[in-house]
UniProtKB/TrEMBL annotation:
Gene3D superfamilies: 3.30.390.30, FAD/NAD(P)-binding domain (3.50.50.60). Keywords: FAD, Flavoprotein, NAD, Oxidation, Oxidoreductase, Redox-active center. Belongs to the class-III pyridine nucleotide-disulfide oxidoreductase family. The lineage of its organism: Bacteria, Bacillati, Bacillota, Bacilli, Lactobacillales. It catalyses: 2 NADH + O2 + 2 H(+) = 2 NAD(+) + 2 H2O. Residues 3-306 form the FAD/NAD(P)-binding domain. Pfam families: Pyr_redox_2, Pyr_redox_dim. This is NADH oxidase.
Length: 443
């Protein structure tokens, strides 16, 4: 038997464990997690807080007993204190103070990420919240449910910040959304798209404070005001959604790290120590758009990295296909989806790119149910390979982004896309599909 210890039992760790347990009979699997629960879909927190879904129970897709039924040992509410990489031993402590000692043949680190906490005066006041764990979602929901909480400040206008701002607004709160950047969602979308989202947020009553860096939280014991570059704003509650960084504490002195401190792994999810693999938000990933190793923290990437690690640890060599960082967001009925690189992100990474924009109806004009669609396709100027795409509409245009994801993975050129076979039916699209029309604009 080969004994594999997995530290961290959320999406990446779960995927690795299931891959080992479902495919390899010679595996002894041990999972260790500090939390009370596992498999929480944090992307659903805003839906629950905003009461777009009835409760949180559906946000869990597995439980401890499911792994025990497959023959795994699982330690919950257990903190790993140390990993002896030379002797291959993991030691930890349970919530009751019991010492846990587990040796391993192979180790999978799935320790995830940690929210970035601004080191500003007043960051220890009551009423300040983060959003990652289930318990943090519970705490935010409990606070927002109080009549005394009338004004909510959200710090950070990335995906989580924008989503929780919408949720708070749906609960009848006054919402102030802050970001040091000049617009929302700058990591995934160019300004042509975020202008629409910013207007959408403003139209729904969210007070935008972009280009404002938060300098201080004021209050006696509880937060009473947010101080930014531009002024002081009274608030009853603050939700920090600035972003996340890799949680690589356990192996930082032993394993090779990426520039941002994540574990550096190869296409098999193997670290610089052959017995140790790293998956999910604590590890790097290969970007097909950039054609090099990078860091993209998404649950979809975490699951795939866990599957790859599981197969390789089990003895079947599987290489990661790489990722595009495909993502989407839906706020007050406006849907944005993207994959690969925006123009801004490409240029920031030193890629010389060109792009085409197109705006058209989803369906022929004679169709009563209709909406505008915006599309941008980004391609490398010299090679003409597609490296990114963005779409926006009040229609559900999400499935189109999967085609672009595959195009990036397979290095499809903008010229090949021009004549790609795309079907037409009035119920779904125009005769000249907006994807075709956009591609044809590329000179």
């Amino acid at each position: 038997m080969t004994k594999t210890v997995i530290i961290g039992a959320n999406h990446a760790g779960i995927a690795a464990a299931n891959t080992l347990l479902d495919n390899f009979a010679d595996q002894e699997v041990v999972l260790i997690d500090r939390n009370t629960n596992l498999s929480y879909l944090g992307c659903g927190t805003a839906l629950w807080v905003g009461r777009q879904i009835e409760d949180y129970h559906g946000l869990f897709y597995t439980k401890k007993e499911d792994f025990e039924a497959k023959g795994a040992k699982i330690w919950m509410e257990t903190v790993v204190d140390n990993v002896d990489f030379t002797e291959k031993v993991v030691t930890g402590t349970t919530k009751d103070g019991e010492k846990v000692v587990e040796s391993y043949d192979k180790l999978i680190l799935a320790t995830g990420s940690r929210p970035i906490s601004p080191k500003v005066p007043g960051n220890d006041l009551e009423g300040l919240h983060f959003l990652k764990l289930f318990q943090e979602g519970q705490a935010v929901d409990k606070e927002i449910s109080k009549d005394s909480v009338k004004t909510v400040a959200v710090i950070g206008a990335g995906y989580i910040g924008v989503e929780i701002a919408e949720a708070a607004k749906r609960r009848g709160k006054k919402v102030l959304l802050f970001d040091a950047a000049g617009r929302s969602l700058p990591s995934y979308y160019d300004k042509w798209f975020t202008d629409d989202m910013d207007q959408n947020l403003a139209d729904h009553g969210i007070e935008l404070h972009f280009g404002e860096l938060v300098r201080e939280y004021k209050g006696t014991t509880r937060v009473e005001a947010v101080v930014s570059d531009s002024g002081e704003y009274p608030v009853d509650m603050v939700i920090n959604a600035i972003g996340f960084g890799p949680n690589a504490e356990l192996g930082k002195d032993h394993l090779e790290l990426f520039a941002n401190g994540a574990y550096l792994v190869d296409r098999h999810q193997q670290t610089s120590d052959p017995a140790v693999y790293a998956v999910g938000d604590c590890a790097t990933i290969y970007s097909n758009a950039l054609q090099k190793t990078t860091y993209i923290a998404l649950a979809s990437n975490a699951v795939r990295s866990g599957i790859v690690a599981g197969f390789n640890v089990g003895g079947k060599v599987v290489e990661s296909e790489g990722v595009q960082g495909s993502n989407g967001i839906s706020i007050f009925g406006l849907n944005l989806v993207s994959t690969g690189l925006s123009v801004e992100a490409a240029e920031k990474n030193g890629l010389a790119v060109s792009y085409v924009d197109h705006e058209a109806l989803q369906r022929p004009a004679f169709m009563e149910h209709n909406a505008q669609v915006k599309i941008r396709i980004v391609y490398e100027t010299e090679s003409r390979r597609i490296v990114g795409a963005q779409l926006a509409s009040t229609e559900d245009i999400s499935m189109a982004i999967h085609m672009f994801s595959l195009a990036i993975a397979k290095s499809v050129t903008i010229d090949e896309l021009k004549l790609t076979d795309l079907f037409f039916l009035p119920h779904f699209n125009e005769p000249y599909n907006y994807i075709t029309q956009a591609a044809l604009k590329a000179k």
